[in-house]
Amino acid sequence: MPAVRDRAGNTLTGFRVVTDSELERLDDPASVPASVVVVEHAGAVLMVFDSWRRQWELPGGSREPGETSRQAAVRELREETGIDGVEADGVAVAEFDLVDPDRHELLAVYRVRLRALPRLLVNDEVLDFLWWPPSGPVGEDMSPLDAEIARRVVHTPPG
């Protein structure tokens, strides 16, 4: 996989499709400290506009103490969007070389498929929402790393 880099110098170096049970076996907070959720509806992926990073990205974030990566994904999705009570399926592990501080990390990637548009709730962390078609362009204000993860998940057959 060719590396994808963002403007800060963070690099997506790998993406491995895994089964839900494989993701659970990899679920060590030290090596997999965060999760993201690719929410799909009608051929589009939900991107949130992060108030701190000022960019469109996938909902997700860091795990809290004692939390599994799935629990973190579901909690972050609820906190950032208001979407609750959905089944998040583990689909992949993304691998990164990050800066500030320099480190190598894995990210748990989950998928949620929605039949109907949800009611989304703007909050302090998320200022807006975008249903982005993964075949579309990646704008200057979108995380190229998250866009690449979204594209790969959309093209991953259901497991």
Description:
This protein has 159 residues and is of the alpha+beta class. The protein has a single domain, classed as Nucleoside Triphosphate Pyrophosphohydrolase, CATH 3.90.79. Helices cover 19% and strands 36% of the residues. Strands 1, 2, 3, 4, 5, 6, 7, 8 and 9 form a nine-stranded mixed beta sheet that branches. A hairpin with a 4-residue loop joins strand 7 and strand 8. The radius of gyration is 14 Å and the shape is globular. The mean pLDDT is 93.
Topology:
Blueprint: E1 4-5, E2 11-17, H1 20-25, E3 34-41, E4 44-50, E5 55-57, E6 60-62, H2 69-81, E7 89-98, E8 103-113, E9 126-132, H3 144-154
Parallel strand pairs: 3-8
Antiparallel strand pairs: 1-2, 2-7, 3-4, 3-6, 4-5, 4-9, 7-8
Summarize the structure.
This protein has 159 residues and is α+β, with helices and mostly antiparallel strands. Helices cover 19% and strands 36% of the residues.
Provide the structure class: alpha+beta
Mean pLDDT: 93
Number of helices: 3
Main pleated-sheet profile: 9 strands, mixed
Roughly what fraction of the amino acids lie in strands?
A: 35-45%
CATH architecture identity: Alpha-Beta Complex
**Overall geometric form:** globular
List keywords for this structure.
159 residues, alpha+beta, Nucleoside Triphosphate Pyrophosphohydrolase, nine-stranded mixed β-sheet
